[in-house]
Structure formats: C-alpha cells, structure tokens
Amino acid sequence: MQFNPVIQRLKTYEPGKPIESVVREFGIAPEQIVKLASNENPHGCSPKVAEAVAARAGQMYRYPDDTMGALKQKLAARFGINTRNLIIGAGSDQVIELASRALLEPGSAILQSEITFAMYRIYAAQCGAEVICAPGVAHDLEAMLSLYRKHRPRIVYICAPNNPTGDCLDRVDIENFIEKIDADTLVVVDGAYQEYAAYKDSAKALDPSALIGRFDNVLYLGTFSKAYGLGGMRVGYGIASEEIIGALYKMRPPFNVTTLSLVAAETALEDEAFVQMSIADCFEQMARYVAFAEERGFQTIESYTNFITLLTGQRDASELADALLRRGVIVRDLKGYGLNAVRVTVGTAEQNDRFFRECREILDNGAA
Ligand SMILES: *Cc1c(COP(=O)(O)O)cnc(C)c1O
Predict the structure, then answer these.
(1) Which of 10, 39, 54, 365 has its CA 20 to 30 A from that of 124?
(2) According to the model, what pLDDT value does residue 368 have?
(3) What are 37-51's pLDDT values in tens digits?
(4) pLDDT < 70 stretches in the chain
(5) Does ligand 1 come within 6 angstroms of the Cβ of 313?
(6) Cβ(40) to ligand 1 under 6 A?
(7) How many angstroms is it from 316 CA to the middle of ligand 1?
(8) Ligand 1 in contact with 42 (CB < 6 A)?
(9) Model confidence, pTM
(10) Residue 163 Cβ contacting ligand 1 at under 6 Å
C-alpha cells in the first residue's frame, strides 16, 4: 500500500500501561493494581461531575453544541479573556495536533527541550517536520534561543511545568524568552500542570490572559485531565490571539468534544474546592516520596506537578519499573527519554503506602 512517506518514520505512542493489560499479562486482580503512571488525579473528579453527567446521559443521541458556548464562557470568565480567544479540544493533545497541522509541513521544524512531552514531536513527525531539541534535563532557554536563531522553527514548545521531569521555569524567564522570539513563530506554552505549580510557587504561576495580551504569537494550553481529574473525558483548551484560534479552527474536526465531556468540564469548573483539596493532598503525599528517595539514596527533581521523578542511581530504572509492574504497581520508566529514572504519579496515601512497600521489598531483595 502506498502510505504517506512520514508513516515509515513514525513510531506508535506508548501510553502508560492501562490496568487492563496488567490484568491480562500478569494475572493480577484489577483491585490489586495501583496505577501511578499517567498523572491522573488519584481522588478522581468532583462528585458533582458524575451527577451532572448522569443527568444529561439522555441527551447522548444528539450531537454536541459545536459552539461549546457554555464551557467557553466559563473558561473565559475564569481567565478574564474573550471566548474568541479559546478553542476546546479532545484533550489539549488535540490542540497540539491542530497547531501542528496549521503550521507544519515537510521542510519546517519545531524546537523543544530534549526531555519533554512526547506528543510535540509525534505530531511534528506526522506533518513531516523536523524536531530540533535543546539538550539538558531542564529547559535550557539559552540553548533554545541559539537553536531558534539557527534553525528558524515554526513552533517553539515550552512545557511549564515540564512532563516527565516535573520541574518548572519561572514566569519571568518564560516571558523574557518569548520576548526574543519573532512574532511569526508560534510559542506553545503548555500549562497542563499549572494548577499544581501555581499552588506551590507563585513565581511559576502563568496568567494566560496576560500572556496573550502581551504576545500575539503565544498559544497557551490547559487541560481537564490532570488537576480536574477528567482524563477519561478528553477535554483541553487553547488560549491565543484570534488569528491563531482562527487558524486552528480551520483544522478542527466538527463536534470534536462530546456532549457529556463538555458537561463534565463545565461542572468540574464549579467545584474549585475539590481541585484545591486534590492539590494540597498531592504535595503532602509528595513529601513522603522525597523522604523515601533520601532513605534509598535516590535523587529527585523538585516537582511542581502531581508526579515525581526518582533518579534511580545505580539501579536500572527499567528493571525497577518492571519489578514493580510484576507486583501490580505501574510507574513510568524514563529510560526511553535517556534518563535513568522512574516517574511516579503521586497517589492516595494508601496507593503510596503500597508503592513504598513494594519498592522497599524489591530493593532489599536485591532484585532489580
Ligand atoms: C497530560 C498532558 C497534556 C494533555 O493531556 P490531555 O489529556 O490531552 O488534555 C498536555 N501536555 C502535557 C505536558 C501533559 O502532561
């Protein structure tokens, strides 16, 4: 079959292992499995969301409101922006895809930090574009700037806080960097974990309204998948100038977010107490991981997200992740990113207890 030539160079994205496949592969009962691999909110979502979704379930036969007016209005009010500066996607992933397709073609390039969210490069590759990477575990803005001047990419990605490392640039440094980027280059600022960063350190908090007010070439991304606990509903958003939003709209498939997903997101926005509770608990529990790492001689990267990266030192991270998996604890092995580390989503107290118990046993038995 004659496929698009880019198909040959593409690899299929490997998401965090779903619970179902661990049940099949290792014969472990689903209730014995703890998944700390996809940065989901371990507290689920606001109970109000389930109620609202159930109440609207009878509307499933209708196509969704394609203007997404209700959700847009809530988001616009939240951020102090105009609804014309918003696009809603099936996850912010889809907004990344739309931006890639709107700007990239063979011969063009994106610029990103080497160890960052995998979808930037995957969508770029699908468009036949090159991926330029600035080396380093954290975003090296100096290096990015010189690579920018050399390669003239059409999109520059800043992930703040960064996945899969958990660290976060300061707002001022991001702004000073964007200042030096030409107005014809799109700067995507991915704020998937901004709720966590803003809670922990106000110097890391981004204000999308101020960003797009100052820079016409910024696309800010947010999601309901992390702090709001709606990963399964697939809702994210992009905030940008009308010009950028207009271009993304031309690439958007109609009805790209389902009726029930829209209801879930609208309702989730009304329960800020739930989100703040989740975040407070996350950082309380994260302190236990930092203590555990110290106890075991692992290094950690200071995290502004709902996950923590443990640099496993002498231990092979893949073997540790594998041994944990056999015991029903799913974490993310970062060897594929060139880091001998595992990324662990901070779970509930009980889930974390289980992680520590299994991990201690593995390490004490010398296995892995
Ligand atoms: C999870 C995540 C996203 C998007 O998630 P969606 O579920 O598609 O909204 C985007 N960027 C980063 C860095 C993420 O970790």
Answers:
(1) 39
(2) 52
(3) 999 999 999 999 999
(4) 16, 366-368
(5) no
(6) no
(7) 27
(8) no
(9) 0.96
(10) yes
* Three-state secondary structure string covering the chain: CCCCCHHHHCCCCCCCCCHHHHHHHHCCCHHHCEECCCCCCCCCCCHHHHHHHHHHHHHCCCCCCCCCHHHHHHHHHHHCCCHHHEEEECCHHHHHHHHHHHHCCCCCEEEEECCCCHHHHHHHHHCCCEEEEECCCCCCHHHHHHHHHHHCCCEEEEECCCCCCCCCCCHHHHHHHHHCCCCCCEEEEECCCHHHHHHHCHHHCCCHHHHHHHCCCEEEEEECCCCCCCHHHCCEEEECCHHHHHHHHHHCCCCCCCHHHHHHHHHHHCCHHHHHHHHHHHHHHHHHHHHHHHHHCCEECCCCCCEEEEECCCCCHHHHHHHHHHCCEECEECHHHCCCEEEEECCCHHHHHHHHHHHHHHHHCCCC
Among 303, 316, 327, which residue's Cα sits nearest to residue 226?
A: 303
Amino acid making up residue 77? A
Question: CATH for 49-270?
Answer: 3.40.640.10
Given the candidates 3.90.1150.10, 2.60.120.10, 1.25.40.10, 3.40.50.200, the CATH classification of the domain at 6-45+273-364 is 3.90.1150.10
Ligand 1 centroid, distance to 96 Cα (angstroms): 9
Residues of the chain with CATH 3.40.640.10: 49-270
Q: Where in the chain is the domain with CATH 3.90.1150.10?
A: 6-45+273-364
Instruction: Please give the distance, rounded to the nearest whole angstrom, from the Cα atom of residue 27 to the centre of ligand 1.
Output: 30
Nearest CA to ligand 1 atom 6: 91
Ligand 1 pocket mutation pick from 45, 94, 163, 332 by most atoms within 8 angstroms of CB? 163
